[in-house]
Write a structure and sequence with these properties.
378 residues; alpha/beta; nine-stranded mixed β-sheet; three-stranded antiparallel β-sheet; 17 helices; 44% helix
Length: 378
């Protein structure tokens, strides 16, 4: 059954006069959408400067709750999973973005907090070169980083090429949709979408069933593609287009942005070439480039002259808090800062300061997407 927090999150997203940013403020302040509804009549005691418009939005919730309950019934019938912002299942990378959706709808069983998540985007009218680069890149990722989750938008061109190549290579892949899960657009990609769900990937959206196709929804969904990943890779793009919007959003979220270069006179590569020229993206020629730039090689193992793995010597003298974070980071290849905060019980600001000190000591390295890993002592 759909849990109550998801239902209240859906209802909150449907309240008239309540913007996403204001709804996010409420959830952050109270810890859950259910708490917002439980205390909506005394909102001024919790948020003293709550606007009149906000108070009015919380005053009439019956229609929103009915719509949310109807959506929950549909989700149960169609086996769609709702993930509320306050849930541990919510993508941690996306949660740190201030405009993250209150609730996500997922068809599939994939883990949205996979250790490595790469968004691959590009023009709908890709060239043979772009298609070839995309196929080779994903195939090489399978060899170098087989557990990575590939994210794209299920659109024509580079998007569907990334999804299909991931499927061919046995990699999980997620399609972020600009509409509800009751439809697939474009419809010719339905078979690909079905295969993505069947093999361990899935379909993800912030929109409820029955949402009409709208141009602005395709623009808005780009922030999910940008925010959910560690790295955003632009394979091909013209001078203007959704891929450049997504790349800009990813950069704004602190994600690492990469772009494949193209010929100077190729209209399909103008956008990528400009991203590289303006230092808005790192030039990419292979999957090896991305793995090296992201620091995704094994951080704790060195090599002997004979090629045998050896443990590097750890660590200089550290205080109690620093040792705690180091021990936590040694349990995995890397961790997201939100995971470190949750596991350590230390405040976000304090964890940030400790990680900075460890980075200055050459013990920790900051990766893309607010993730950190141990490095060998300098």
């Amino acid at each position: 059954m759909v849990n109550q927090e998801v239902i209240f999150s859906i209802a909150l997203s449907k309240l008239k006069g309540l913007s996403l940013l204001n709804a996010r403020v409420l959830v952050d302040a109270m810890g859950a959408a259910s708490e917002v509804f439980a205390h909506r009549k005394d909102i001024l005691q919790i948020i003293p400067d709550a606007s009149k418009r906000l108070q009015e939005a919380l005053g009439d919730v019956d229609d929103a709750l009915r719509a949310a309950e109807q959506e929950a019934e549909w989700m149960e019938r169609k086996h769609v999973r709702g993930i509320a912002l306050s849930s541990d299942e919510y993508p941690l990378r996306l949660k740190e973005c201030e405009d993250a959706p209150l609730v996500l709808y997922l068809c599939g069983d994939t883990d949205l907090n996979r250790r490595r998540i790469i968004s691959i985007i590009g023009t709908r009218k890709c060239s043979d070169y772009g298609r070839s680069m995309c196929c080779q890149f994903v195939a090489d990722l399978k060899r170098l980083c087989p557990d990575a989750l590939i994210v794209s938008g299920l659109a024509y061109g580079i998007d569907v090429c990334a999804h299909r190549t991931a499927l061919e290579n046995g990699m999980d892949t997620i399609g972020v949709l600009a509409h509800g899960l009751d439809t697939i657009y474009p419809s010719v990609h339905r078979r690909t979408a079905t295969e993505m769900v069947r093999t361990g990937g899935g379909l993800l959206t912030e929109y409820t069933s029955g949402t009409a196709l709208d141009k602005m929804n395709f623009v808005r969904r780009n922030r999910i593609v940008a925010g959910i990943c560690d790295a955003c890779v632009v394979v091909e793009s013209s001078a203007k287009g959704g891929s450049l919007i997504t790349a800009e959003l990813a950069s704004g979220y602190g994600r690492d942005v990469f772009a494949f270069p193209g010929r100077a006179d190729d209209v399909c590569s103008v956008g990528c070439n400009n991203l590289i020229k303006r230092h808005q993206a790192t030039l990419l020629t292979s999957a090896e480039d991305l793995i090296e730039a992201m620091g995704w090689q094994n951080p704790l193992l060195g090599r002997t002259a004979q090629g045998d793995a050896v443990q590097q010597e750890l660590f200089p003298e550290l205080n109690e808090e620093e040792l705690m974070l180091v021990r936590m980071l040694r349990q995995a290849d890397d961790k997201h800062i939100n995971q470190i905060v949750a596991e350590s019980g230390i405040s976000y600001s304090r964890v940030s300061m400790i990680l900075f000190d460890l980075e200055m000591k050459g013990i920790v390295k900051a990766l893309g997407g607010a993730r950190y890993r141990i490095v060998r002592r300098l």
